[in-house]
TrEMBL record:
UniProt keyword annotations, A-Z: Ion transport, Iron, Iron transport, Signal, Transport
Keyword Methyltransferase: no
Gene3D superfamilies the record matches: Nitrogenase molybdenum iron protein domain
Compartments where found: Cell envelope
Residue stretches making up the Fe/B12 periplasmic-binding domain: 45-314
Pfam families registered for this protein in UniProt: Peripla_BP_2
Coiled coil regions, renumbered to chain: none
Full protein name: ABC transporter substrate-binding protein
Gene Ontology BP terms: iron coordination entity transport
Keyword Disulfide bond: no
Source lineage: Bacteria, Pseudomonadati, Pseudomonadota, Alphaproteobacteria, Hyphomicrobiales
Amino acid sequence: MRKLTLMLASLMLLAGLSPTFAQDTRSFTDDTGRVVDIPVEPLRIVSLQDLAITIPLLELGVTPVGSHGRTTAEGVPFIRSSDVLTGIDFDNSDIKFVGNLPADVEAVAALEPDLILMTPWQTADVNQLAAIAPTLVLDDTKRGDFGMHDVLADITGTQDRLATLKTRYEGQIAQIKRLIDTSSITVNVIQGVNGQLFVWHTYGALGKVLRDAGFKFPAVVDAIPEGGDEVFGAEALPELDADLIFATYRTDTLETPDDAVTYLEQVLPDFCNFLHACRENQLIIVPREEASASSYYGLGAVSYMIISQISGRHFTPMAD
């Protein structure tokens, strides 16, 4: 039956028809330069990237009929970070799991979508997907983490909801600036990965809040292009030091703060001795799901965390 659905979709395309033929459409140029006619009011969206597309859609009040996801060691599918960011997952909603990498094209077709959204990261064949329904490729690496909310709001007509989310965030940033002299504090976000240090110009929600609030970063971090990241060896630790340093750990894989420390120890044993922030007990370790997410809830959680961790705190600044 699923193969038959895909074959019918392909035949409709060849005949000049579309599963969305009864809907009003408009032209949209995606991030690969493809001009696609999409529904003015899409009703059955399939998202093929959970973090970059599904979670922003849910925050905008749009529930896709299907979504890309991950699976546990026991084979149970889940939408990464969605349970803590939106409260919605496969097990408590009508969203259907359509696979990981590549997505299951037949499972997508069986949902009879009127719009398919994906990023270049998804490895399913675009032409096969386009035979099912209008398909847009949206490049989150170019648009930026929160630029995806803007384009998705445009596609789904939820600009008013996005404006509310942005207004709330502006209030959160204003509160941080009122309570903390951010311009006098240096910060950084580092992560140990396979014995090396990963550093981002702006690390997800955490990096956005820190930069928008006016905290200062080490010069070597500011030199990383916006939207980019860089890998450093242990010898770079002094250049990456700051008054306060943040590290993260994955709660969806049952990691704990100790794991974040272990990964940094793999970069350099006794790394703490080489970082002012760590020596002075100013290394702050937080869950990665909220810290790295493209999520307005994540921005709020991070904003509250920063206020609770830093406002009124007496800490030892780095020597000039």
